[in-house]
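Exercise: predict the fold of this chain.
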Amino acid sequence: LQVCIARTQSGLDRGRARVPVSFVPTPEQQAIIDYPLLPLRVIAGAGTGKTTTIVHRLAHLVRKGLSPERAIGITFTNKAAEELAARLREALPELADSGREVEVTTYHGFAYGILQEFGAIVGVERDTDIVGPGYVRQLFHEAIAAGSYEALDLTWLPARVDEAVDLSAQLARNLRTSRDVPAAVGNDEIAGARSEIAAIVERYDQTKRDIGVLDYGDLILLTHRLLTQHSEIADRVRGRYAVALLDEYQDTDPAQRELLRAIFGGGFPVTAVGDADQTIYEWRGASTTNFDNFPTHFPAENGDPATTLPLTENRRSGASILDAAHGVRSVLYGDEPFSPLRPVPEAPPGSVTAEYFRTAIDEAEWIAEETLRLNTEEGMAWRDMAVIFRKNGDMALIRDALQALDIPVEVGSLGGLLELPDVADLHAWLRTIERPGDSIALARLLLGPIYRLGLRDIASLSNWIKPNRALLGEDPDLGWPLVEAIDQLEEIEDLRPDAMERMLAFRAHYRRFLELAQGSSLVDLCRHILDETGIWNEVEARETGAALTARVNLYRFLDLAEEWSPLRGRPTLPAFLSYLDLIADDKSAAELDTANVGTEDAVVLLTIHRAKGLEWETVFLPALTDGVFPVNGGALDDPDRLARFVPYELRLEAPVSMELEGEERRGALRVVRDRQEWRTAYVGMTRAKSRLY
């Protein structure tokens, strides 16, 4: 399994550049590497060797006498932190034997480390657990159930959970709590709904305190409170370091900025690296002004704005690709000047191709045929090609078109684990065992590859139920669960003989698993289902790549079943199924991330947001259609119209002027949304090295 997981990640690693063995810095890079220990902002355009430059800046400082333990690098994801640490080890091999390293962590990890050390002062125990999205939704579900409501409509509970999750996260990003939300006055319907959502958030926060857990928003909020209320702790943390590097700074939110200022403000030699044109995470709180205003947020000791140095020589893309990307940037900047990216002198020109298709099917088939041509006629490896999407939902059609031509495919998508056929079958078994009224799950199993029944056979079960229900004086159209008919198969006269045989086999399995569910752990029950129904045999009968992909995703589900534990009480099948229901409502739940490891050499399909920081020789950008890319729908961040948003006056910064109201405000918010779409397009285009379609 570890090999499979490693191979899973390798598909994305292939798109990521490594530190060159022989690194010859450009004049721009050399200026950054040699810059003294003073506040510094590095504007690093796409493909300009940002990570390589900052690695060599830190290595240069260490070789000049800086103790590696007195340097810290902070970035966004665990994966990025691991990569930065690995590159530093490559650049500083002389430290390997001594075991000394530069500290590298994530923004949340940095805050958590401070809380683990000093959190008792603000009531946080050292071993406090951090809960992810699934548990967060579970606790919010409980918090909603504990209240009474006049303004909120509870007919669709997942929507109310979404609203509470959003309001809680936005409060934390602005260093606020639910108690800061003003009470509703008069007949203001939106304010009334917001007050009720804030009460849900308060119950959620109280439950976290009761059971001793934190969420990711708490990490920043509580750490900032600790540092600002106890400045001696901020001084102590600051004193440990001589230099700090803030990577991907354009993705930070206002609360993270204020936490960093509490430690590294006032002239500390902090280097922030990023690119405002690649700020594509506003929807999760990234501030478009953090990077722009870094020089004044982190001034020199004498109060002067921090110095800014650029990286503009693109080492990735051909000139024609950069020209197209500059066209996108010109929309962002309008009449304002900007520094265009320059290709390295030896870079080939590259090519940009635009195609128009009548239907999405035509587009998918053309992409598959062009991919095949590039491989067979031009010798391009599958792994050097990627199809990058604005939305996960557009992947399936192109994936199917590629697979129809036997092109190996690797899909990197968030969520979706429960939608994979083998995992969906296992999930259906668990639902059928625990929820006998779930006839949809039962029908899936009967119609699936193990029992291979047809709709006519399902109709026979349903037709038997109706008259029997009528005999009891009940409405026959309401129906019984299909499992009732399975229990009485011998009474059903119109079943085909082979259908009867398969249904008897299903019933034997069902009764066996009902018994096992009484005393087995979740993971053991899942393993028995996989072994005894022949799902593993179905998997192994496939081609090597497809079998490996299915196997790894089943292992992911088994790991989830084995590792999952409720926040209160013991693990049970009903609680586990409820947990799966909740995280399935979160479309980006990491717990339900899929793995595709069909082959080491495969065309990669993933979203632009997941492709950020990666590169391929050839990139296809499909589905450039109205409403898909650019997105022109969805909720605008207007607290006067939607209760899930924090009022502007409570925020550290507002997305538009607080003086705007009504349609004028909504127009300004549409501009904000459109600019993010243009930045997302810029990121997608600059993933390509030689060909962009």
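Check your answer against the key: Residues 6 and 247 are 25 Å apart (CA to CA).
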